[in-house]
Design goal:
The chain has 488 residues and is mainly α. Helices cover 33% and strands 7% of the residues. The protein is built from 17 helices and twelve strands.
Length: 488
């Protein structure tokens, strides 16, 4: 075969299916399998660059340096503003595209700078102790579906030929804690609850918004591991809903088949079970077992071709094999990242996300000309509390204490005291703030949780968070914060 024939798939004027079929037909078995793990290898002879499928944008582009940071997902839901969420997702996808193309110019193809984003998290937040509930839009299936659709549309864009990004609703399905049990847990759910509570948002994201990817959950649902569930991945997702895209496993979830769920015996059996059930991409490395599995007759190369074609279709639809001048989103300049318009949008979204429970005595809005203000609490002067999880970094982040200082009159005295630790049992240090009280006009207590106390199981390495494996063990303020509030 001539070099020209090998590279026929690079012709952007050919039909998409022809380009995909031509490319995959020229791959060796090992090259095909290498495209089915999240860190995909380069195929130089076919001009297929290396690509890392793993990217995050839960509330702005995450884990990729500078970005506009929006409120955490549960705060976004508190806006109850669907058009606003789509504007936020559009701003995020602008920044993701700009960062991707700038990274390519630097020869940078590593993780978190690609175009396939594992967002949004549209699981149903039924138990407030769940540490990942903060990533979701709450407990309501209808609101979750509306916000999920808006988010997917904002990420993927509206060009008739190219996807701006690939959105990945997750974690499909019936995934809502507890975190420490997710690798072994079987979520048993009746048909009505499955269809009325857990599936509507996924169905809407697939059918209304055209999500091109779906991520499976770690747990089992009604006995079947979600990343290898014929019921969820084939019968419902593809046969009923007509999903044309690809399914990705949660990270290292395939090994749970034999290590946690015990529905297979070996890594090779787990990989084969996943692919035969409809999982196309492995976040992890276990799908490398498929090379020998084909040779051993456990699965055919033709079955792998189905998954590889789905994956390569996504890359073609993202314009990865076309000249940049053909792809409208490639022209988004790097200056859009954390630009003034996006910062203004983040501020608007943050304002609309605030939930006011009481305003006794019409204390709010605060007068800027108070003589003395005391700001107390373990979260008052903390950058960590601004992050949430799966976060990016906004330049010049402002703590709550700094925001108050910037807002009040230059003649106002602002005192600060931590008061107590975030979650420890050490006694409250009243001496730290008692001396300020006689001259204080106003006390602002800044209390609550922080990323060190809740989050995804794999992130729960902190000594405090490890107690619940990422989940909260109790409802209420942690540590001695309530006692601090009572003393104030």
């Amino acid at each position: 075969m001539t070099r020209t024939a090998e590279l026929t798939h690079l012709n952007p004027d050919l039909p998409l299916t022809e380009r995909v079929d031509t490319l995959v037909a020229q791959m060796s078995l090992r090259e095909k399998v290498a495209q089915m793990v999240h860190r995909s290898s380069e195929i130089r002879r076919l001009a297929v660059p290396a690509y890392d499928w793993w990217n995050e944008c839960l509330h702005g582009v995450g884990r990729a340096g500078k970005a506009t940071v929006f409120p955490q997902a549960i705060g976004l839901a508190a806006t109850f503003d669907v058009p606003l969420l789509q504007r936020m997702a559009t701003a995020t996808s602008d920044e993701a595209r700009a960062k991707h193309h700038e990274a390519l110019r630097l020869g940078h193809r590593s993780q978190y700078f690609g175009l396939t984003y594992w967002t949004p998290n549209i699981n149903i937040f039924r138990d407030p102790r769940w540490g990942r509930g903060q990533e979701t839009y709450g407990e309501d299936p209808y609101l979750t579906a509306r916000l999920g659709v808006a988010f997917v549309q904002g990420l993927q864009g509206d060009d008739p030929h190219y996807l701006k990004l690939v959105a990945t609703p997750k974690h499909y399905a019936v995934h809502s804690g507890p975190e420490p049990l997710r690798h072994v847990f079987d979520a048993v759910v009746n048909g009505r609850d499955l269809r009325e509570t857990y599936l509507p948002a996924f169905k809407a994201c697939v059918q209304e918004a055209g999500a091109w990817s779906v991520m499976g959950a770690y747990n089992r649902t009604n006995g079947e591991p979600c990343c290898g569930s014929p019921t969820l991945l084939q019968q419902i997702l593809r046969d009923e809903w007509g999903f044309p895209g690809f399914v990705v496993s949660d990270c290292w979830a395939i090994r749970d088949f034999h290590e946690g769920h015990h529905i297979t015996q070996t890594p090779a059996e787990s990989a084969v079970h996943a692919v035969k059930s409809g999982c196309d991409l492995n976040c992890g490395e276990l799908f490398n077992e498929l090379v020998n599995a084909v040779k051993d007759g456990m699965i055919s190369e033709a079955e792998l071709d189905v998954s590889v074609k789905r994956l390569m279709t996504a890359r073609f639809k993202l314009g990865m094999f076309d000249p940049e001048e053909r792809v409208p989103y490639a022209a988004i300049p790097p200056e859009v990242v954390h630009c003034a318009a996006h910062k203004a949008l983040a501020r608007q979204t943050a304002c609309e996300s605030i939930v006011l429970l009481k305003n006794d005595g019409n204390l709010l809005p605060l007068a800027k000309n108070a003589k003395t203000i005391m700001v107390v609490g373990p979260n008052a002067y903390s950058l960590d509390v601004l992050h949430g999880n799966y976060f990016g970094y906004a330049p010049q982040m402002t703590t709550i204490l700094e925001g108050i200082i910037n807002a009040v009159s230059p003649g106002t005295q602002v005192h600060h005291a931590k008061g107590c630790s975030l979650a420890g049992k050490a006694p409250i240090n009243e001496n730290e703030f008692a001396w300020m009280l006689p001259e204080t006009d106003l006390i602002i207590a800044v209390l609550g949780f922080a990323p060190a106390l809740e989050g995804e199981e794999a992130d729960a390495s902190d000594e405090i968070a490890s107690e619940g494996g990422g989940d909260r063990l109790h409802i209420g303020l942690p540590g001695r914060q309530l006692e601090l509030l009572q003393k104030l």
